[in-house]
Amino acid sequence: MVRFDYHTHSNYSDGGFLFGMIEAAERAGLEGVGIADHCHISDDERLRANRDSLGFSLDLTYERRRRGIEQIAAGRDIRVFDAVEMDYLPAAEDQQAAFLDDANFDYAVGSVHQVNGRNVQRDAAFRDDSEREREAVVDDYYDTLVQLVDSGLFDIAAHVDLVERTPSLRGFSTQAHYDRLAAALAESDTVPEINAGRALGDYGEFHPAPDLLTTLRDHGVEFVVGSDAHSPEELGRRVDALESHLDDLGVEPTTLDI
Fold first, then answer.
1. Which of 91, 100, 102, 237 has its CA 20 to 30 A from that of 39?
2. CB-CB contact of 236 with 20 (8 Å)
3. Residue 193 belongs to some domain of the structure
4. Number of separate domains in the chain
5. Rounded CA separation 102/115 (Å)
6. Helix or strand or coil: residue 239?
7. What sign does the dihedral 115-120-123-127 (CA atoms) show?
8. Cβ of 117: how many Cβ atoms within 10 Å?
9. Is residue 258 one of the residues assigned to a domain?
């Protein structure tokens, strides 16, 4: 049963209005919802320019959003968590740690979207790469993901096989990648999520996909649940789909100690 959705977005990054996301979570029958907007912390000018152009500036607006959450959540039965989804960048780890310590979110979601300055969700960026070059990108993705887990900065690791969502990179993940990631998570306090971000769309799978999910379960790794919803309509549909998926798997998700 889905009681908590720890991964949604609001208009403080690329999601729907804050009040709409919270009301949708109430309608879905959730006990708690996490507003985990995107956040980029880096000195890299290109990445900072990308952040500014997308409006992913939670590092500048999180206090304002916190006040908004408090106002909208007041008097409601649902718990609303003040969270963040941060793009993990190994070169910026010290800066990210300092920001998370200062901001004191309820919890932090870590994700890997960038590998060597390339967004692994942008299929067109990899179509002209050779097979060997694509393999190297996927290798680097899992290397960075393990670093994210080992950093200890994050409570949740988001969509841990994101590269499978990208047609040009799909199929290059190996059992060795899965075993290494599973071992890191088994030794860490960081928990991966079962993520519905593209399960009802073009990808058609939940994260983690079946082979990685089996490997993680074999290592005794537990999961939280994240719809990765960016609109109120998505949230309700994805929570329903997650309910069915968890029933099929026989998985009871864990909860964060907040």
1. 237
2. no
3. yes
4. 1
5. 27
6. helix
7. positive
8. 10
9. no
**Tokens for 174?**
């190996």
Task: Report which residue type is found at 137.
Answer: V
Task: Note whether 200 and 237 are within 8 A (CB).
Answer: yes
Contact 66, 103 (CB under 8 A): no
Q: Is 73:22 a contact under the CB 8 Å cutoff?
A: yes
Per-residue pLDDT of the chain (258 residues; tens, 9 = 90+): 899 999 999 999 999 999 999 999 999 999 999 999 999 998 777 766 766 777 778 999 999 999 999 999 999 999 999 999 999 999 999 999 999 999 999 999 999 999 998 999 999 999 999 999 999 999 999 999 999 999 999 999 999 999 999 999 999 999 999 999 999 999 999 999 999 999 999 999 999 999 999 999 999 999 999 999 999 999 999 999 999 999 999 999 999 999
- Report the amino acid identity of residue 194: I
Token readout for 109 is 């979601």
Tokens representing residue 212 in the block: 């990685």
Q: In degrees to the nearest 10, what's the CA dihedral of 10, 202, 107, 60?
A: -40
Q: One-letter amino acid identity for 207?
A: H
- Tell me the pTM: 0.96
Q: What distance in Å separates the CA atoms of residue 105 and residue 108, rounded to the nearest whole number? A: 7
CATH number at residue 132: 3.20.20.140
Quick check: 216 and 180 in contact, CB under 8 A?
A: no
Domain boundaries, position 137: 4-249
The two tokens of residue 196 are 């519905």
Look up residue 168 and give its amino acid: S
Which among 112, 93, 82 is positioned nearest to 43, based on CA atoms? 93
Strand partners, 32: 4, 79
How far apart CA 69 and CA 82 sit, in angstroms, is 7
